[in-house]
Amino acid sequence: MNIFEITDKEFKSFQSFIFDEAGISMADSKKQLVLNRLSKRLRHYRMTRFRDYFDLVHKPEYASEKQMLIDLLTTNETYFFREPKHFEFLDEAILSSFKGRQFRCWSAACSNGAEPYTLGMVIDHKLGPGRWEILATDISSRILQEAAQATYSMQESEKIPRNLLIKYCLKGVRAQQGVMQIDKKIINSIKFQHMNLNGRIPEVGKFDLIMLRNIMIYFDLETKRTLVDELISKLHPGGYLIIGHSETLTAVTDKLKMIKPSIYRLEA
Questions:
Q1: What confidence tens digit (pLDDT) does each residue in 92-113 have?
Q2: Nearest to 233 by CA among 260, 195, 206, 199
Q3: What sign does the CA torsion over 146, 211, 82, 76 have?
Q4: Which sign, positive or negative, has the C-alpha torsion 240, 244, 246, 251?
Q5: Which residues contact 100 (CB under 8 A, 6 or more apart)?
Q6: HEC states along the chain?
Q7: pLDDT per residue as tens, the chain (268 positions)
């Protein structure tokens, strides 16, 4: 039972905070989620009021706690081969005709690593080792540390095709029973990096594919337009931007051609 209460004014402070920091428009319906996720931080500091915790994270000496707050308020739900049609398109349409340089992919909101590791399996299986690299970024430093471990429960492997599971995943034994480890030949071609997509995006080079799935549903239209324009500047001519099935770029940009719903291409 939660002994804390959060006032409407306090909740609105956190709404404004996560919008300013991450561009996320948090719905009023998320009030209980905020209450549940932040209560343990109040207990940690022996506080009783959310406004005291809000004031604390804005003090310079508590920068790490501010990052903790961002981590707690950002959603990290993901799993291997989520929205599998995207990976089928990558395999059958994008990679089948790709030639020449090293294939570069950006998993722009990588969460716990399931997306970039899924991409790595599909790309390596098609192109072979040494011919690809992935940049995986997220606003949550905590979730990035988890992703870099490349360790998951065996239950999380259920949606991985069997041939890829055998080729790229190691099953734990004895003390590691029930645990799955991604193979180093995948890990070594993925770079994890902390990045706030709502801020200035650093120089990361050009990509043949950018995945930004199920993130823009939290952004307002202006934030979407600014971000997508930035991502387009990071695409090679002929490169692809893939968003979530529930998302669209209608009214966001006319610089990309829709190949299929949620799959867009920058014309060469």
A1: 999 999 988 899 999 999 999 9
A2: 206
A3: positive
A4: negative
A5: none
A6: CCCCCCCHHHHHHHHHHHHHHHCCCCCHHHHHHHHHHHHHHHHHCCCCCHHHHHHHHCCHHHHHHHHHHHHHHCCCCCCCCCCHHHHHHHHHHHHHHCCCCCEEEEECCCCCCHHHHHHHHHHHHHHCCCCEEEEEEECCHHHHHHHHHCEEEHHHHCCCCHHHHHHHEEECCHHHCCEEEECHHHHCCEEEEECCCCCCCCCCCCEEEEEECCCHHHCCHHHHHHHHHHHHCCEEEEEEEEECCCCCCCCCCCCCEEEECCEEECCC
A7: 567 899 999 999 999 999 999 888 898 999 999 999 999 999 999 999 999 999 999 999 999 999 999 989 987 678 999 999 999 999 999 999 998 889 999 999 999 999 999 999 999 999 999 999 999 999 998 899 999 999 999 999 999 999 999 999 998 777 777 899 999 999 999 999 999 998 889 999 999 999 999 999 889 999 999 999 999 999 999 999 999 999 999 999 999 999 999 999 999 8
Residue type, 71: D
Name the token pair of 60.
């310079």
